[in-house]
């Protein structure tokens, strides 16, 4: 889009007409990850100051959705899928399959640009890790997390999430 383009420019800095023109002119791709996996990743990277995963989750829940940090904020509030029509939604754990399809759809050679993703290994690792860390949580925390991420779970194909139960 030919207007002021700076690395940090956000859509809210443009008027509605400009936003609509930009969104029509771009191919919009949304990368989605299970919110529970996002929490695990954030905790493992040390982005929280809590000593245990359970206390980290409690800190997240206590912060509320309005005050949540971007790494664990619900995607629906970050990406606005009800207002922005994304052309593609790529789910973490299926990158190799979905990115190949995406690249072909936009006219790029799929095989030459794809890295060697190990989706099945990633899915197995996160499945095992999720079960271990999910067991650390109280029933109340599990229910609160499901409520915290209810719109993400409803909006995206995350039926295998432990929070979907």
UniProtKB/TrEMBL annotation:
How does this protein lie in the membrane?
Single-pass type II membrane protein
Matching entries from InterPro entries are given as: Carb_sulfotrans_8-10, Sulfotransferase
Q: Which UniProt keywords apply?
A: Carbohydrate metabolism, Glycoprotein, Golgi apparatus, Membrane, Signal-anchor, Transferase, Transmembrane, Transmembrane helix
Q: Name one GO biological process term.
A: carbohydrate biosynthetic process
Q: Which GO terms describe its cellular component?
A: Golgi membrane
Family to which this protein belongs = Belongs to the sulfotransferase 2 family.
Protein name from the UniProt record: Carbohydrate sulfotransferase
Enzyme class comes to: transferase
Chief location: Golgi
Write the Enzyme Commission number(s) for this entry. 2.8.2.-
MF terms in GO: sulfotransferase activity
Native source organism of the sequence? Eubucco bourcierii (red-headed barbet)
Compartments, record wording: Golgi apparatus membrane
Q: Which gene encodes it?
A: Chst9_0
């Amino acid at each position: 889009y030919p207007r002021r383009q700076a690395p940090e420019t956000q859509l809210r800095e443009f008027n509605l007409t400009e936003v609509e023109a930009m969104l029509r002119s771009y191919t919009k791709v949304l990368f989605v990850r299970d919110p529970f996996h996002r929490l695990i990743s954030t905790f493992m990277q040390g982005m929280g100051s809590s000593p245990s995963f359970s206390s980290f989750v409690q800190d997240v829940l206590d912060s509320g959705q309005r005050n949540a940090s971007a790494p664990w904020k619900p995607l629906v509030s970050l990406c606005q899928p009800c207002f922005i029509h994304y052309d593609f939604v790529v789910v973490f754990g299926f990158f190799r399959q979905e990115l190949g399809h995406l690249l072909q759809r936009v006219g790029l050679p799929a095989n030459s640009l794809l890295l060697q993703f190990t989706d099945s290994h990633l899915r197995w690792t996160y499945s095992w890790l999720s079960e271990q860390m999910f067991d650390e949580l109280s029933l109340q925390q599990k229910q609160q997390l499901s409520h915290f991420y209810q719109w993400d779970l409803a909006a995206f194909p995350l039926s295998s999430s432990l929070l979907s139960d």
